[in-house]
């Protein structure tokens, strides 16, 4: 039952959507029926265009997340633990964080160009700050009494980190992972519609030029499915590593 209920509304929307177009209530040219979108997806799949562009988008998204999320995590840990790092870097990071990263697109194109590095860089910047903020907050929120207790029991600095600080900060870090995954797709959508020749965003942009609404909506649905998959992975990580934290739900 728990696996069925979340899909009732999405399936209901698709059924109603199909009925509205089939009954002629809405124009099939402006709002293609789900069946037409599936046919369009099958044609693109047979030509190889769909899987090629999906693969390119996934590569950009994952590489950008790994680079940006990794940098954000490392900076969050260093600034959270070491006062010298915090004084040196945190103020600058906070200033940069308040600059909308999508506003950097013209500058990135001028400096890096319109190739793959610019798109991956933009996704990396978008993922870095959520990971940094949540990691930093998680590390600095650890009860100092627990750290002192660990030291009194003879734990080394590395043992204190892996046995006390990291486990305590993990819930907030994983929250940063979930947020960064969402920002990853939002950033990629914009990056792939600006001066690019491949990817899901490029497919949508090209379809818009020819008023191909089926492909436009297909691309939107693909992004939505990837967003759902990312959220599922983030939740799976939380359920796996934070099983001790899950409260008993009231049925």
Automatic annotation (TrEMBL):
Gene3D superfamilies referenced in this protein's UniProt entry, alphabetically: MetI-like
Assigned keywords, A-Z: Cell membrane, Membrane, Transmembrane, Transmembrane helix, Transport
Similarity comment text for this entry: Belongs to the binding-protein-dependent transport system permease family.
The species this protein was found in: Oenococcus oeni ATCC BAA-1163
An annotated GO cellular component: plasma membrane
SUPFAM superfamilies on file: MetI-like
Coiled-coil intervals: none
Span of domain ABC transmembrane type-1: 50-234
Lineage start: Bacteria, Bacillati, Bacillota, Bacilli, Lactobacillales
Protein name: ABC-type aliphatic sulfonate transport system, permease component
Main location: membrane
């Amino acid at each position: 039952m728990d696996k069925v209920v979340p899909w009732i509304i999405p399936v209901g929307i698709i059924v109603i959507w199909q009925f509205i177009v089939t009954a002629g209530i809405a124009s099939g040219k402006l709002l293609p029926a789900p069946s037409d979108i599936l046919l369009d997806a099958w044609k693109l799949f047979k030509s190889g265009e769909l899987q090629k562009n999906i693969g390119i988008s996934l590569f950009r998204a994952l590489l950008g997340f790994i680079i940006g999320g990794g940098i954000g995590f490392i900076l969050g840990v260093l600034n959270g633990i070491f006062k010298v790092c915090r004084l040196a870097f945190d103020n600058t990071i906070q200033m940069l964080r308040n600059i909308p990263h999508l506003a950097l697109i013209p500058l990135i194109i001028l400096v890096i160009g319109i190739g793959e590095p610019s798109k991956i860089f933009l996704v990396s910047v978008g993922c870095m700050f959520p990971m940094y903020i949540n990691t930093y907050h998680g590390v600095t929120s650890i009860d100092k009494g627990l750290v002192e207790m660990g030291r009194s029991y003879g734990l080394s600095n590395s043992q204190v980190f892996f046995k006390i600080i990291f486990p305590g900060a993990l819930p907030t870090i994983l929250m940063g992972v979930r947020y960064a995954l969402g920002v990853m797709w939002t950033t990629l959508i914009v990056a792939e519609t600006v001066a690019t020749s491949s990817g899901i965003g490029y497919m949508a942009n090209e379809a818009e030029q020819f008023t191909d609404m089926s492909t436009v909506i297909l691309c939107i649905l693909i992004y939505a499915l990837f967003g759902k998959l990312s959220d599922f992975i983030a939740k799976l990580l939380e359920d796996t590593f934070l099983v001790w934290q899950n409260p008993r739900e009231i049925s």
